[in-house]
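Exercise 7.
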Amino acid sequence: MSDNSPATGARSVSDETRNVVREFLTARAAGDTERLVSIFADEVDWQLAENPAVPWIRPRSTGAECAAQFTELMRYVVPEDARATVDALLVDGRDAVLTGHLAGTVRATGKSFEGPFALRLTVEDGRIVRHHLYENSLSIAEACTV
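Solution. The predicted structure, written as tokens, is:
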């Protein structure tokens, strides 16, 4: 006999979300753009504060554009100095929030940036449909400015 209670349903949705987020983090760490394209939905609610001084921050809406953000970022930062740590992963049904710290060095200026971040992801049908990133945009903009 299976348990079809609401709590079990919510748990399985949360488990799916957690698994997709872990896949996303693994693909992102490996720079696997092809895998990232398959993890993102065809259309994504992408939010990242526009920052004209930062070349890799721009509006995106397709899975391919969202996946390409990692490749674009690596063109502009020193790969050996790019770091992100996740301190917490909170999952509630289709939504996940990651908090952590990121840091890097901009290749063109040699300046560093760092700061905390929060990332809200939403998963539907096994794919990421929402990606809202909140980060220390001032530190990143200053590092991009000569």
